[in-house]
Amino acid sequence: MTHDRHQFPGGARFAFTVIDDTDVATVENVQPVYRLLESLGMRTTKTVWPMRCPEGSRNFWLSETMDDTHYQDFVVDLRARGFEIAFHGATMETSTRERTARALERFRSVFGAPPRVHANHSYNRENLYWGAGRLDDPALRLLYGRVFGQGAQLYEGHRPGSPYWWGDLCVEQIEYVRNLTFSEINVLRVNPSMPYRDPIRPYVRWWFSAADAEDVDEFNVLLRPENQRRLEAEGGVCIVATHLGKGFGSAGKPHPETRRLLELLASRNGWFPPVGELLDWLRARQAGDGLPAGEWRRMQWRWARDLLARRLAARRRA
Ligand SMILES: [Zn+2]
Question: How confident is the model at residue 153 (pLDDT cuts 50, 70, 90)?
Answer without folding.
Answer: confident
